[in-house]
Structure formats: structure tokens, C-alpha cells
Amino acid sequence: MLTWRVPALTGVLGAAALTLGGWLLSPVGMWWALAAAVAVVAVLTGLDLLAAAPAGEVRLVRSGPRQVRLGESAEVTLTVTNVSLRMLRALVRDAWVPSAGAAQPYAHVVQLEPGESADVVTTLTPTRRGDRPAARVTIRSYGPLGLAFRQTGRRRAAALTPPWTLTALPPFTSRRFLPEKLSRLRVIDGRTVARGRGQGTEFDSLREYVIGDDVRSIDWRGTARREHVVVKTWRPERDRRVLCVLDTGRTSAGRVGTVGGPGEPARPGEPRLDAAIDAALLLAALAAHADDRVDLLAVDTLVRANVSSSIRRSQLHRLTQALAGLTPALVETDFGRIVAEVLRVARKRSLVVLFTTLDAGALGEGLLPVLPQLVSRHTVLVAAVHDPSLEALAARRGGPADLHTAAAAERTLAELHRVRAALTRYNVQVVDAPVETFAGAVADRYLALKAAGRL
């Protein structure tokens, strides 16, 4: 293939040939001079193409991280080795899918002697969660004069490209709340053994009575079997089960607005599913530190994710990987399927945290009819992200259009209150908080239930 230098050189030599031919030769000789100039350019171009190293005679190897959190950057290195016998003057383009967020420059110039290698570094900042694969590496090999080049074809480029996938994990921005929640956890069910029994405690062991112990904690049966008085000691509840259920239906795709400054309209925020994932990760990390078992389900009409093994501190990354590629499905959530899956997975009494929305249509027709089956066997917590733009729209009192908008917002808020009241009648815990404090509010409710011994 030809570069821009060929027509430029042809124009320069052709103009020179016409000018000199007009001075020294006849009009017919001018055309012969022009033809000679074109022939010279053609010969130079052909020789340049023959001197270019074969574009396909290279070895490509990738290295770098396989995972990165959403919002952070990672550098993936492509090592190019010239295995031909000619010097390689090439333009290397390492293409990725658009959502991988590859930074410019997209193409890199390399000059390699036979057997020499060079590193091409691509900085990736993914814009979406999930797997972001490399697309194709295209190599364009130029001749010494830069007049012509050879380029790998589609099939050859696909065969040369080393496979690589960068997984964009959830950002887990709520981890900033973790130190404060762990401090509260140590206060509520800390590492020390309690002398007296309180809410959220269970029997630990027997020990010898010492002066100052509560006489009500004396174990008379144990004392009868021993030669000294023994008392019962208690410890915080452990090894409880927490099941996080993520609603991945159509309502999880909605973006929750964030309110700007005074007088500013609400701006579209993050999707509800992303906020639910962030809150589920904080809850899982907190429960793992409390030695509780954490399971996860993501369901709409199908089960999208199922992590049924117990999540400990060393296994929290597995939960993060399971949530990385989770996306909303544009279907109506089947709450009957959700309840059936929960009853199948959670055989023992558990805390079921359902991350969904307080939509009157979805919950009223889908969840409320099947909720008694769930409440009879488990403690249920419904967690929903509150949209602050509703209050902002309800406060508008401008022209007729603003009044209609405010009336619609007030009606929506009234429906939310009715749904919350209906859930409360079933003894369901409800968390309805803005996205900024949503994860912390879910963790606080878990700590409150643990302190009360209701897990």
C-alpha cells in the first residue's frame, strides 16, 4: 500500500519535469519527462515496498494486570519482537473495545533490528464493569523511504493478537465506611467474652466463679458435677447466615438522581444496580469480619449470579468477581422466582437482604403476594435507593408545567410511603436512603439486628 508521500513526490517531480521540459524540450518532450518522473516514483515505491520487513513476522506477548477496579487505571504491556531478517519500521496499533477506555496514542512507532524487542504500553481506564477484552493488534511495516507499507490482514492480525481480558471490578466506594462500621461491630459484639447474658449473645463456656460475678450466671448443674462453683460465659452471636438478593430487573437499570446546589436541577447519578452492588460488598465485608456466612443471589426472571459458599475475609474477592459482570435485564422481575430461590438456598433461618426498588407496581403485584412465605422463615430487609430528585421536583412551584410535575412527584412519594407501610405490616425491615448514604444505612441496619440477636 502507498503512503501520502507517493502523490507528494509525484507532484514535486512532475512539476519539475514539466518546468524543465518546457525550457529545454519540445511540448512532446514535456510529456516524456513527466512519464519519466512517474516511472522514477514507481520504481522507488516498488523498491521501498520490497525493502519493508514482512508485517506478520513478529512475536507478540502481553503482560500486566488482569483486574482493576472501575474508575482506576491499569497499564497493559505489549512486547513486540522482530523475528524477520530485516529491520522493522512499523506502526503498531493495539486496539481494545471502546469501554476499556484505552488512552491515546492508539498507535505506536517502533524500529526494531532483527531479534530486537520493544514494549508498547497501553493505559486502560474502563468505563463499565465486566470483562473488557483486547480487540486486535495491527502492524503496518514501512520501507526505508516511507513510500509504501505492508499491513497485516484481518485474519493474520487476529492470529497474531495475544488474548487478554481486563476485568473491571465494582469500585467498592463504600469501603470508606468500613473502619467506622468495624469499630461499631467491636462495640456491639466485640472480641471480649461477656460475663452476663445480653441481647445478641450465645453460650460460650463455663469457668470458675470469682468474686464480683453475677450470681444469676451460676450454672448449678455444672457446679454439682465439680468441686467448685462455675458460671456461664457468653459470647456474641456468630456463624449466622446473611443472604444478599439483588433484583436485576428493569427497575435496577434506572439512574438515581443526585441533587446539586441550591436552585440547581438534579443530575442523573449511578444506576440502582451499581448502588446495590456497592452496598452488598460493604455488608459482605462487615459480616465476614463478624464471622457470619454470606451468600448472594442475583435474580430477575433467571438466576444471574449465585455465590453460595461462605464468604470469609480471604474469599471476599470471589464475591466481587461474581458481581463484576452483572448487568440489568430489561424484563419484569419475577418475585415468585426470587422467593423460590431464597427458600431453596437458605434452608436455615437467615437475614435476607433484598436490594430492589420501592416501586408500587412491581412490589404490590409481585412481592407482596409471596412475601408471607419468606417472612415466616427468615428475617427480611428490603433495601432501596431513594431518589432525591423526587423531593426537588415536588418543591417546584413555578408555572403550570412545574405544578403538574410537582403533583406527579408528590403522588410518587405517597406511593412510596404506602409501600413502606405495607412492608412494615409484614414485619419487614425497610431501608430507603439516598445513594450517598445507602451502603452505610444497610450496614447500620445489619449491626442493629445483630445487636438485638435477630439474625
UniProtKB/TrEMBL annotation:
InterPro entries named among the record's database cross-references: DUF58 (IPR002881)
Assigned keywords, A-Z: Membrane, Transmembrane, Transmembrane helix
Spans traversing the lipid bilayer: 7-25, 31-53
Top-rank taxon, per record: Bacteria
Domain DUF58: start-end pairs: 206-421
UniProt-recorded name of the protein: DUF58 domain-containing protein
Organism placement in taxonomy: Bacteria, Bacillati, Actinomycetota, Actinomycetes, Micromonosporales
